[in-house]
Amino acid sequence: MSAIGVVSSCSCLRPGVWLLKPGMQKMSSFSLHTAARCAAKDYYEVLVLGGGTGGITMSARMKRKVGAGNVAVVEPSKTHYYQPLWTLVGGGAKQLATSARPTGSVMPKGVEWIKSRVTALDPDKNCVWLENDIKISYKYLIIALGISLHYEKIKGLPEGFQHPKIGSNYSVHTVEKTWKALQDFKEGNAIFTFPNTPVKCAGAPQKIMYLSEAYWRKTGKRSKANVMFNTSLGVIFGVKKYADALLEIIKERNIAVNYRRNLVEVRADKQEAVFENLDKPGVTEVHQYEMLHVTPPMGPPDVLINSPVSDEIGWVDVDKETLQHKKYPNVFGIGDCTNLPTSKTAAAVAAQSGVLDKTISLVMKNQLPNKKYDGYTSCPLVTGYNKVILAEFDYNAQPLETFPIDQSKERVSMYHMKADMMPLLYWNALLKGYWGGPAPVRKLMHLGFK
């Protein structure tokens, strides 16, 4: 869904294992070498909240700084997902099971895995509270709790997913329903949505649209499909260079784009989707659908709403250059749960992890952080079963490209980078704390000029 540097990823996470093959479930029995139902200690030098991309990456880095026994990760889920692959799972190009590994197998060896949920943060007392009133204290806290999906904010969901013709690539429980709806399409409207909230991997809602359109061309159904992208935004993409390229593709493939339209209700029994017109309050439109792909509203995890570490909305309030908390100097944030003004992707997490590593090192030495995060993020925009536009950009929505080529062009090489190379980089480098984004590669590729 998004990218790990030049790579692909969205902050991966959490749901259950009920869709996994039996062999995948069995792996957990011998790989939970760091597991603990509750904390073995009540104090850690470094406590990490969240075992997704940012949490695992930073725990690996912190292990090398302070020793494995001094680091703990709070994460309730037994399975860790490489979510960027779900775009291709929804399009029938990859299997869901290949995106999953037991959490114990990605947890850095020796790091304490606390299998519990955070219920409250008390940064004034340097502690957090877990389920069953367990208190854990820390010297340094890294918050990497990700982002929450809110299907329930759309009337008729999530129960509507029990009906056919509807799917969503954002949940382990619904991504395979996307592929089923795509295959079962006969004739009518195929609607793809983008909500009126921040989202992780903002390119993903339209990636599945391009894959679907390509699939119907291959199977002879394209003439029977009215492909629609109903987005709450006023633009197709936030960076003009890539937006211009996408608009050309949209024109060539006869895709209808309806801006400022927000999905508010799904009547799955009637195959109807209701959208509000954001420019005309109170005005709604009802569309019949033969296929509907839902991108849910998203927001900060409940535990962060009204927390001392959060801003007024609920995002962790950090300095956008150092990732250090604005009020609590021993608290840090990374990834989707922060209020960093950049796209929420694992590409961003990769770049942030390198900066945060340096920031924490200096803070531990009572020095001021000087390494600056430039907002780097990336989104491999899948436009077909063998085509990708590799978007990379910074805080200012200016291209920050790794390769000395025009990355706004569709390329087969970039597709294989996303589909085949980047999962390897994710599991073997990023999660082990060895990949801090493509900045060194970019400098080399551009002979030191970028």
What keywords describe this structure?
about 450 residues, eight-stranded mixed beta sheet, five-stranded parallel beta sheet, 22 strands, about 25% strand
Over all CA atoms, what is the radius of gyration? 21 Å
Average of per-residue pLDDT values: 92
- Quick one: how many beta strands? 22
Number of helices: 10
What features would you describe in this structure?
- The protein has 450 residues and is of the alpha/beta class.
- The chain is 26% helix and 23% strand.
- It has ten helices and 22 strands.
- The strands form six sheets. Strands 1, 2, 3, 6, 7, 8, 9 and 20 form an eight-stranded mixed sheet that branches. A five-stranded parallel sheet has the order 11-18-12-13-14, covered by helices on one side. Strands 15-16-17 form a three-stranded antiparallel sheet, with no helix packed on it.
- Helix 2 packs parallel to helix 8 (346-364).
- The chain is globular and about 65 Å long.
- The model is unreliable at 1-37 (pLDDT under 50).
Short description:
With about 450 residues, the chain is α/β, with parallel strands linked by helices. Helices cover about 25% and strands about 25% of the residues.
Layout of secondary structure:
Layout: H1 22-31, E1 35-36, E2 43-49, H2 53-66, E3 71-74, E4 79-81, H3 86-90, E5 100-102, H4 103-106, E6 112-114, E7 118-122, E8 127-130, E9 134-143, E10 148-149, E11 166-167, H5 175-184, E12 188-194, H6 204-218, E13 225-231, H7 240-252, E14 256-259, E15 261-267, E16 272-277, E17 284-288, E18 291-293, E19 298-299, E20 331-333, H8 346-364, E21 377-384, E22 387-393, H9 412-430, H10 439-445
Helix pairs in contact: 2-8
